[in-house]
Amino acid sequence: MDGIGGFMGNAKGFVRNPLGIVALFVSLIYGMACLVVTKGLEVLTLNERLVLIAFIVAFPLILLVVFFILVVCFPGHLYGPSDFKDEKWWVQVIFGDELRNKREKDAEEVHRSGEDVPSRPDSPAKPGTPDAGFKDNASLMARMSQIEGAALSKLNERCGLFFARDVKIGRKDRFVYCDGYSRKDGAHYIAEIKYVPAASPSRIHVIREGVGRLVSRLHNIGILEGSRLIVGVVYEGGRDETFEEKARQALIDVYPALDVVFYRTEELGVAQG
To answer: Do 78 and 90 touch, CB atoms closer than 8 A?
Structure first.
């Protein structure tokens, strides 16, 4: 009984992360194989012995190949939340690539209609357009992340909610990353922040396309109905009521139940780029 109790105690330590579960599985398999070899080998036929030997030889090779693929392709999945001092770092390790892909696509949206967005600090900006001075997508993504956090804080105050940032909604094979997510009284609140360096009409169709894709994906995973979708549009410079009205109408045409909120970077307390 002491041996079984000790094994169970060790097993609890193993199951804290996927790597431990793999180790426990391997130990159990080899434990059973050794038990068969030591206790039942004399009763096995020749063919059964050959099968057992083939398994003992092939199993570690197969395990090595699988483990190699796991380490090379999915290293973050070898660890569990308890392996990190702060579990938010585990979330970052698991979902970091997907989040980065989303942010890169958001940055591409900013540049797509962006003849008025200089790609280098020495690029001349058009009259009335703030010189964003983004050397590359990394600096743009960093600024967008800062703006996103400030805009979600404003939405928290406006809606009386707490929006969690960068939330994955849906199932494993069908999901959507949203900038902010909250739930209250059984309703889903989804926030998407769109940043434009200038209140230019050329930006509106890009924002519209991005929101359209989000609405379509939310519909496909069955979460759009019963959800409140809020789009926060953040732009540089002074208040532009014409831009806001045209952008609001374009987004409502995509999804009539949409709430559209506009912020200037100055309102958010974010220094102009």
So the answer is: no
d(CA 157, CA 166): 18
Cα dihedral across residues 156, 162, 166, 171: positive or negative: negative
Reported as a single tens digit per residue, the pLDDT across 72-106 is 776 666 666 666 665 555 555 555 556 666 767 77
Instruction: Using alpha carbons, list the distances in angstroms from residue 62 to 14, 52, 58, 59, 179.
Output: 21, 15, 6, 5, 41
Q: Which structural domains are found in the chain, ordered by start?
A: 2-81 (no CATH), 102-268 (3.40.1350.10)
The DSSP output letter for 199 is -
- pTM here is 0.58
The CB-side HSE value for 65 (13 A sphere, CA atoms) comes to: 4
